[in-house]
Design goal:
This protein is an alpha+beta fold. The chain has one domain: Deoxyribonuclease I, Chain A (4-Layer Sandwich). Helix content is about 25%, strand content about 25%. The chain contains four helices and eight strands. It has helices at about 40-65, 95-110, 115-120, 170-175, and strands at about 1-5, 20-25, 25-30, 70-75, 110-115, 130-135, 140-145, 160-165. The strands form two sheets. A six-stranded mixed sheet has the order 1-2-3-4-6-5. Strands 7-8 form a two-stranded antiparallel sheet. Helix 1 (about 40-65) links the parallel strand 3 and strand 4. Helix 1 (about 40-65) packs parallel to helix 2 (about 95-110). The longest helix is centred in the first third of the chain and has 23 residues, at about 40-65. The radius of gyration is 16 Å and the shape is globular. It starts with a strand and ends with a helix.
Length: about 180
C-alpha cells in the first residue's frame, strides 16, 4: 500500500525522488538521490539539501519501530572500495566529503548497509545502489548481492541491480 510520494518537509520539490509503501509487513522507501553534478553549484547544493531532508525522514522511520528497507540510488560512493578507480571520479559529487559525510550520518542513525554487511572486506561495486535495513531487520539478512552480469547486456545502465534475502517468520517456523 502506497504511503508516501515525497519526503515530508520537502513537498514543494517538483522532482520525483522518493516513494514509500507498506509491503508484506515491511515499510519500503525507494529513492533516487540527486546526482549533484557539476559541483560546486546549485545542483550540488540541491543534492545536499535533499540528503538532509532524507536523513531527517529516515530518522523518523527508525523511531516508528516499523521494519524498514531503504532502497535505491543513493548516488554516493561511501568508501574507495566501492568504485574501481577513484582518480577519474575525484571531482564528481558522488565522492565529495560532504556526500560521504551525509551517508555516514545516515548509517550512524542505526541503518545497516546490507551489501557491506554481507561483504565487509570485498570490493563490491554497487554503482551507488544501496539497500539499508532498520536495526530489527539487519539480523534477518540471509543473503545479499549485486547482479553485475546485467551491466554486460546490450544498452545496459551503468547500475547493477542489488538484492537481499530476508529470513521471515514463516521460514523460521519451517526450520524449527
Amino acid at each position: 500500500m502506497l504511503s508516501r510520494r515525497e519526503l515530508p518537509g520537502n513537498e514543494d520539490d517538483t522532482q520525483s525522488r522518493y516513494i514509500e509503501a507498506a509491503v508484506h509487513g515491511l515499510l519500503i522507501g525507494c529513492l533516487y538521490l540527486p546526482n549533484g553534478n557539476p559541483q560546486p553549484g546549485p545542483k550540488f547544493d540541491y543534492r545536499l539539501a535533499w540528503f538532509e531532508h532524507f536523513n531527517a525522514h529516515a530518522k523518523k522511520l527508525l523511531a516508528s519501530g516499523h521494519p524498514v528497507v531503504l532502497a535505491g540510488d543513493f548516488n554516493v560512493v561511501p568508501i574507495d572500495d566501492d568504485i574501481y578507480n577513484t582518480r577519474s571520479w575525484l571531482k564528481d559529487a558522488l565522492l565529495q566529503p560532504e556526500s560521504r559525510a551525509a551517508y555516514a550520518e545516515l548509517l550512524a542513525q542505526g541503518w545497516t548497509d546490507a551489501i557491506r554487511k554481507k561483504y565487509p572486506h570485498e570490493r563490491i561495486y554497487t554503482f551507488w545502489d544501496h539497500l539499508l535495513l532498520s536495526p530489527d531487520l539487519a539480523p534477518k539478512l540471509q543473503d545479499a548481492g549485486v547482479d553485475k552480469w546485467v551491466r554486460g547486456e546490450a544498452h545496459a545502465s551503468d547500475h547493477a541491480p542489488t538484492w537481499i534475502t530476508l529470513r521471515t517468520a514463516r521460514a523460521r517456523k519451517k526450520a524449527a
